[in-house]
């Protein structure tokens, strides 16, 4: 075994999830015969990154993508605020976003007068961005498409990637390609799920095939420095239950105090130690057992439905074996009307909750949005439950 980030062989397995379906493969008919893939979580003692050993062909994962950011109100707010933050702080002239999804960040950036370019692997999602009048292409970012990309964008002074950098099987190739499109004084902005939040709130449910590496600031700094980038700014933001936002550049920057503060916190808490990750694994398996047994008990009160069909839902249903869940509610038209991956559980729109009175418990798999979800359904008189950071009933 070798670390895909630093090529060290000093990697150790900390968590092994039995084979499960790919969390984005929703089907129009029940599909209990779906292909199954294991997930082996490794920790690298050399560069400190957490990663998944198995990688799945990116075309299979992303070409027809079922996650459109603008259907999640919390994400729309996040990216509107992020656009303002970028504009006020850095005043970029030309921005390239890698993994632009449906244009959720590029739209507000364009409104600030920035020239924007968006790349995304997913054909269907890029189409959504184009339909908003944005300059977007369905193309994978990297060395092999670099000439095509440069002919289209020219050099840019700001490259950004939110929640897409860990999709890359080759993070080193990604950073080398960034170097070639960025002006010498340009900046790279990344938002990635934060390993510290993962550890604090036991988020094993977001460790699935699309997310190949999870970074602390320490591991990200190790990686960036190897490619000649320096950390300029870092912040923990609430997106996806805890993400790390960083700004890096090739010029030796005036590192802001936030960077050193987070690095020190990571050192003090032992975040990057193998011991902490082993303890994380033990606590996660306990959490899975508790949630499974409490929900199993709640079946006596009536039907249990889940809320939110995104990746976390498949993880809970498949790994905790919650096959007794009757329906999954989701407002995205890319998911509602389909079936959960590898199962016969239908996904329904939220208004189904008013029509069907048999549900007595809702298990909020999108637990990081639980309060907002419950507030949208004052008509529901049963019990709301969430699995993390710890199992709890009624919000
Ligand atoms: Zn490594």
What features would you describe in this structure?
It is a single chain. By secondary structure, the protein is an alpha/beta fold. It has 2 domains: 11-266, Rossmann fold, CATH 3.40.50.150; 276-394, NAD(P)-binding Rossmann-like Domain (Rossmann fold, 3-Layer(aba) Sandwich). It has 13 helices and 17 strands. The protein has helices spanning 58-62, 73-90, 106-111, 123-131, 146-153, 171-181, 195-200, 217-226, 257-269, 274-298, 311-319, 352-355, 370-375; strands spanning 11-20, 37-44, 50-52, 94-98, 115-120, 136-138, 156-162, 182-193, 213-214, 230-237, 243-249, 303-307, 328-329, 347-348, 359-364, 383-386, 392-393. A 7-stranded mixed β-sheet has the order 6-5-4-7-8-11-10, sandwiched between helices. Strand 4, helix 3 and strand 5 (115-120) form a beta-alpha-beta unit. The longest helix is centred in the last third of the chain and has 25 residues, at 274-298. The mean pLDDT is 94. Zinc ion (ZN) binds next to loops.
Features:
Rossmann fold, 2 domains, 17 strands, 33% helix, binds zinc ion
What's the layout of helices and strands?
Elements: E1 11-20, E2 37-44, E3 50-52, H1 58-62, H2 73-90, E4 94-98, H3 106-111, E5 115-120, H4 123-131, E6 136-138, H5 146-153, E7 156-162, H6 171-181, E8 182-193, H7 195-200, E9 213-214, H8 217-226, E10 230-237, E11 243-249, H9 257-269, H10 274-298, E12 303-307, H11 311-319, E13 328-329, E14 347-348, H12 352-355, E15 359-364, H13 370-375, E16 383-386, E17 392-393
Parallel strand pairs: 4-5, 4-7, 5-6, 7-8, 12-13, 12-15, 13-14, 15-16
Antiparallel strand pairs: 1-2, 2-3, 3-9, 8-11, 10-11, 16-17
This protein binds zinc ion (ZN).
